[in-house]
Amino acid sequence: MAVSETPPVVAPAPSVRTVDTGTNFRHPLYQVLLETPGLTVGTAALDDLMTWGLTNAMWIFPMATSCCGIEFMATAASRVDIDRMGVIVRATPRQADVMVVAGTITTKMAPRVLKLWEQMPEPKWCIAMGSCAISGDFYRNLYSVVPGVDTFLPVDVYVPGCPPNPEALMHGMMRLQEKVRRQRKGENVVPEVKPELLKITQPSVPRLTDPSRPSEQSHQQELSSDDPTTTEETAALVVPAGEAPTLAPLVAADFEGLLGELGVATLPTDGPPIIPLAQHLELARRLKAIGYKQLVTIAASHWPAGKGRKGADAAEVEHYEIAFAVRTIGQGSRVASWAVKALPTEPVLTLSGIYAGADWQEREQFDLVGVKFAGHPDLRRIMLAENADAHPLRREFPADAHAAPWR
Amino acid sequence: MNEFLQGGLYGGGIIVAIMTSLLFVLWTERKMAARMQSRIGPNIIDPLGFLQAPADVLKLLQKEDIVPEKADRALFNYAPVLGAAVAIAVAAVVPFSATIVGADLDVGVLYLLAAGAVGVLPVFAAGWGSNNKFALLGAMRAIAQSVSYEVPLVLAALVPVILTGSMKVSEIVTFQQNHHWLIVWPFFLGVPAFVLFMLAMLAESNRIPFDIPEAESELVAGITTEYTGMKFGLFYMAEYLHTVIASAVAASLFLGGYDGPFAPGVWWMVAKTFGMVVAIYYLRWSLMRFRSDQLMALCWRWLVPTGVVLVVASALFVVFAG
After folding, report:
1. Which residues contact A183 (CB under 8 A, 6 or more apart)?
2. In chain B, how many domains are there?
3. Which residue on chain A is closest to B33 by alpha carbon?
4. Is residue B44 assigned to a domain?
5. B49 lies in a domain?
6. How would you list the strands of the sheet with A294-303, edge to edge?
7. Dihedral pair phi/psi, residue B100, rounded to 5°
8. Cβ within 8 Å, pair B52-A84
């Protein structure tokens, strides 16, 4: 990946972890009893009793991050009521036996999940609930998602589904009980088979805007035909072919005046006016002064050099286009938006001195696109994991994000 | 028989009895909570779920015992034991019948208030010893709450003391046997004092609706955040002990203790205590949690002035009408 101008943030190589699966733990008291002579029958009975206690009071630590968490809550609610099997949900890992990973785990979350897992006392088990926890599902090629928690946790039971319904989770708990029973008897327990993954490919259904879509075609023909039954309303919807509609630039009068003062005479009709980089900060300052007090958004996009790029001007050089939008507060709110173009070498001055909300917005654009805002007080990553070393929304970032090396 | 041996045997008997009753109390709460949330509660382990509490204990006994590396080992390990011991110490002065009473102290009411107040120390030890910010915050809240509610608790307990003219719990019960239960006459003092006592006792035991010390949405699990296995179990047990014994104390001070027709006194005591426990659980599962400032406002703005008024009124009642 050629991301030469971005400095590596924090990238310590992740060390190889050995994960204790929890099968080797024996309580010291239990060991003493085992070694007392003549207690074979007694210990066997005691062992059964202990296993009975262990399997009937499995307290859950809910690692619920997304929609599976809702189904998890439903499992604890009145319809299924997992408390029937003696399951209590404890908020602290120290008092839990089973970690239920319910939801997508991102690369940023994964170290935290592992930390919580390590804080749980032995014996402990893990249930991967739902497609995302099992395999990452359709997020699994995304640069920010862990493709399955079994990459860093010893998963005992997989509960497939998207999301699995409460009964499925309860069945997963019962399978876990069965597994523990057999494990404690010393039987050889075959690890649960990971559910087969669907091969998710690009769906062959034509898009709505696709003119080759049959229903769309017939609909358009119907609208443009000279059918005498066409009512006035439907006729008004028909755009006459060949005539491009003329659109007036939608710019508030005060914003237009301000642009005129800054020397931007012609306003584009297809997007925000593009401001010279030197006037960017001045414009923001004056906009705030005339009442545009709230920053709505900052959105940056990255454009590689046009040479060799399909449908692009060959003279175009690599640059960023960054759009800003601010608005007035109150009734009849007016929005002003503008954009700047900047070469990777040109510093874009930060707005965080003028709009406090620009701080995190700019951090986000830095994180995903790699725009380095000059003068920003704290330009760190805000969304991706700390050890990420690329900006995934740049054009050169590969779409197949198995290349994302920090995963 | 040796006096000490007798005392030891007797105390052991009481403790075993209360511990056994805890299993039933635990079952009651779990089933009641389930019913109030239109669930069923434990019913797979056995049809009625009676074996759930033993299974929980067996499981807790098997869990790994984790002491955080930077924790204060002594405080961390002794806090749960102390908590359970202090909770059960209050039971010593409660007369379960005319003959079953551990130590019929002349200052019985003072003793049970003092023993209850010591209950703050294990909480503080657990919070400080865990070396965990959530535990410490939980302990801080618990102490603020307990110390504040100590005041209305003492004021409410003073009402029966003034009305009966004795601090001996057995004499308070005997007085109610000979006259009226304090909740019946004078009801305008007995009922408010009883309500005040129960509210303060609920707050002292740190459970819903006064459970801000272990508000799981803010503080993970409060003081028990770092506790695993049976150490957590002891804290849990102490809470239930607290509920049961507070109910027994309230029954003795206001509901006539072991007084009642037809059946032997001890059965009346058990029935009243259990009735109080059920009432507490009913409150616990139908109310929501107070905010910290609401809790303090309730105590200092309403309960303490009410308590003072009640104490003065009982003194006047004894002088002019008693």
Report:
1. A23, A189
2. 1
3. A83
4. no
5. no
6. A274-275, A335-342, A319-327, A294-303
7. -90, 95
8. no
**Domain span including residue B92:** 64-320
Can you say how many angstroms the Cα of residue B108 is from the centroid of all Cα atoms in its chain?
Answer: 16
Cα radius of gyration rounded to whole Å, chain A: 30
Measured between beta carbons, the chain A residues lying within 8 angstroms of B55 are 52-53, 56-57, 86
A346, two tokens: 């040109």
Task: Give the tens place of pLDDT for each residue, A247-284.
Answer: 444 567 777 778 777 777 667 767 778 888 888 888 88
Phi, psi of A122 (to 5 degrees): -70, 155
> Which is it for strands A60-64 and A98-102: parallel, antiparallel or unpaired?
parallel
- Between the alpha carbon of residue B277 and those of residues B47, B243, B273, the distances in Å are 24, 7, 6
Q: Beta-carbon neighbour count of residue A402 at 10 Å? A: 11
Architecture of the CATH domain A253-403: 2-Layer Sandwich (3.30)
Determine the length of chain B: 322
A163: cis peptide before it, omega within 30°? yes
ipTM over 0.95: no
- Closest chain B residue to A80 measured between Cα atoms? B39
Structure confidence by residue, pLDDT tens digits, B79-108: 999 888 888 888 888 888 777 777 788 888
Q: Which of residues 195-254 of B touch A (CB under 8 A)?
A: 216, 220-221, 224-229, 232
- Domain A28-184 matching CATH 3.30.1330.50: the answer reads no
Question: Within a domain: residue B12?
Answer: no
Alpha-carbon distance values, B135 to A279, B128, B288 (Å): 53, 7, 22
- What's the token pair of residue A112? 């935290």
Partners of A30 on chain B (C-beta within 8 Å) are 62
Instruction: Decide if B39 and A90 are in contact by the 8 Å CB cutoff.
Output: no
